[in-house]
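Q: How would the structure tokens look for this protein?
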Amino acid sequence: MKKIKEVSFVCSNCGNEFGRWQGQCPACGEWNTIKEVAARFTNNNGSSRVAAPSRGLGQKLEAVNLGKLEVNLTDNKNIFSSTISEFDRVLGKGIVQGSAVLFSGEPGIGKSTLLTQLVGKIGGLYVAGEESAEQIQIRVRRLKLNEKNFDILGTNSIDDIEEFLDRTNNLYKIAIVDSIQVMSCANVTGVAGSVSQIRESTFRLIQLAKKKRIAIFVVGHVTKEGDIAGPKLLEHMVDTVLYFEGDKSGDLRILRTTKNRFGPTDEVGVFKMEEGGLREIKSEEINLVDSESAKVGSAVTVVMEGTRPMLLEIQALVVESFAPMPKRIFSGVDYNRGQLLVAIAQKSLGMPLYKYDVYISVTGGIRIDETAADLAILSAMWSSYKEKPLPGKNVYVGEVSLLGEVKKVKQLDKRKKEAESLGRRVVEMKNVREMKS
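A: Here is the predicted structure in token form.
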């Protein structure tokens, strides 16, 4: 019987499929992201080589009425703790049985270390697609974890994982798949890491998690732009997307969630990389300000990471430029927001930044997404430009409008309380022009 290869075209950015190749994706507008994908082989009678799962002879699919479904809302037997409080904070109440979690981060940031500590605490299956069992054992011993809690399955095949979990039914509460970029399915063409393989592998892992009631953590690599490698559809398929970030030259690590079907998306977990692994940092220990002494080009702000306030130091360097086009480099601050603040500084504060290079950095490797740090960024720029330090006890919190007006931000009282507990005070300002006086 003749086999016909089904071919489709998939956008690697948003995951949408098309019947023909196009230079620009109509869905997301990105250029040169549509790639040819040979999904599977189909017989000439129209039947696919991959059949839908059978429900048994004579069985029919029935809908479930929620009014007749008895659920005890106070019973959290479907949720269990990871025994790592910062990890549970990010997930919500803990790990949900049968959930699929995408865990991503830059190379060397500590993804494998944190997941190894997770398995070491509660026990589970570690599917090693990139390492050998001996290499994982070295890491487990370095972290001083119980080796008996680890079952290592060395494979790059999703079929092997399914077969193994079928034989060991209900033996594991969690499974780590490291990483999705090296996994492949026998029924799909293309090499491991291709769009078709990542999509099919993730889909089958999700089905496996729901069927076996196992929480599966899928490790995903990131691109040089900081995005998760593979089709954007990957993030839509899973239940939770966790991102592990931080400055590799420092010791602080932040775990945040960008998607969570079972809990909040605004909480973060804070860890510190030490010789013995990652240590949880409690709220009272978080202080990313080096000292209380006044420094030129330095300003302190308070940002809200979930429900907890954090003091951060923002450093600015404004120097005369000798290039035709002055440099604008922002670390930890959105580039477009930084450019906007540079324009406000030039208009409202009279700083001739058209002939100055501007460098902005947030200490600790933290990335600021909220606009409450606008006033601190402008204050640090003004300090560097004037070569005068700001008062050491001052904290600058406020969103700056295009007209230079300082607007109040949410949870201001909580920010003030945090600043006062550390012997500092939040500066009250209605317009950035008040810096001149």
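The mean pLDDT is 86.

The CA atoms of residues 304 and 310 lie 6 Å apart.

Upvote if useful.
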